[in-house]
């Protein structure tokens, strides 16, 4: 402030004075609003306390200074987050990816708000696979005008995948073994044949069959009740 006032006294009030312009630019970089700079010029004296306005709307996520503390140009004073729209990261298994498209509508539920749902969109799929969990991260975007969606909150997300016709069987029809996934296909007269299948997405008690069966094949719906030895599937 003193530097700006001295520049005004030495260079007059013309804004094209290089010294005055540099001093004013420094005040702007320090976060002083234009109104405060104008008031300083009119007042002619520096203020001990200067209001510091946030550069954007939002909520304070962290405050890194306290009253009486010293700050330098490198000091982070606070962090602000605009929560009018939030991102939610969810983990997807690789077999679910063929059903997922950027732009898919999504629905979010929070345990703290039973019966309430937030509608949003899937707006990004990360290109890498999590080596430990074998999952791909999808980023969902939700409007948050009421501020109920807070960072760090756990939620349940439903991705409304693109419709696709597929062959499916009840989940209970699948025998999941160390050698792979099988269904028991009926051959007639009480005879059954174990058939290895490749599974697709699973939802609401049904699982898609990507390979191993064709339309019209008859399978045992509750295969878990059949007695078998794993040697049958080797």
UniProtKB/TrEMBL annotation:
CusB-like three alpha-helical bundle domain span: 1-48
Keyword annotations: Transport
PANTHER family assigned to the protein according to its UniProt record, in alphabetical order: CATION EFFLUX SYSTEM PROTEIN CUSB (PTHR30097:SF15)
One term of GO molecular function: transmembrane transporter activity
Domain Multidrug resistance protein MdtA-like C-terminal permuted SH3 residue range list: 167-220
Protein family membership: Belongs to the membrane fusion protein (MFP) (TC 8.A.1) family.
InterPro entries: 3HB_CusB, Beta-barrel_RND_2, MdtA-like_C, MFP_Cation_Efflux, RND_pump_MFP
Gene3D superfamilies named in the record: 2.40.30.170, 2.40.420.20, 6.10.140.730
Entries under SUPFAM superfamilies matching the protein: HlyD-like secretion proteins
NCBIfam families: RND_mfp
Domain CusB-like beta-barrel: 85-159
Record-level GO cellular component terms: membrane; outer membrane-bounded periplasmic space
Keyword Hydrolase: no
Keyword Transport: yes
Protein name per the record: Efflux RND transporter periplasmic adaptor subunit
Pfam families in the record: 3HB_CusB, Beta-barrel_RND_2, RND-MFP_C
BP-aspect Gene Ontology terms: copper ion export; plasma membrane copper ion transport
């Amino acid at each position: 402030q003193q530097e700006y006032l001295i520049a005004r006294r030495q260079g007059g009030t013309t804004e094209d004075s290089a010294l005055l312009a540099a001093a004013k630019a420094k005040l702007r970089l320090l976060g002083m609003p234009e109104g405060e700079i104008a008031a300083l010029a009119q007042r002619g004296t520096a203020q001990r306390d200067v209001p510091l306005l946030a550069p954007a709307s939002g909520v304070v996520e962290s405050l890194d200074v306290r009253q009486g503390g010293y700050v330098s140009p490198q000091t982070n004073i606070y962090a602000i987050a605009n929560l009018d729209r939030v991102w939610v990261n969810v983990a997807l298994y690789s077999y679910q990816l063929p059903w997922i498209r950027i732009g898919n509508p999504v629905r979010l539920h929070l345990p703290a708000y039973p019966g309430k749902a937030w509608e949003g969109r899937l707006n990004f799929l990360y290109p890498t696979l999590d080596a430990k969990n074998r999952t791909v991260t999808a980023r969902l975007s939700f409007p948050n005008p009421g501020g109920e969606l807070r960072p760090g909150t756990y939620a349940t997300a439903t991705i409304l995948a693109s419709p696709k016709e597929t062959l499916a069987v009840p989940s209970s029809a699948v025998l999941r073994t160390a050698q792979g996934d099988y269904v028991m296909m009926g051959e007639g007269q009480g005879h059954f044949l174990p058939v290895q299948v490749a599974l697709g997405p699973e939802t609401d008690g049904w699982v898609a069959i990507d390979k191993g069966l064709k339309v019209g094949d008859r399978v045992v719906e509750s295969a878990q009740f059949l007695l078998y030895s794993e040697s049958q599937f080797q």
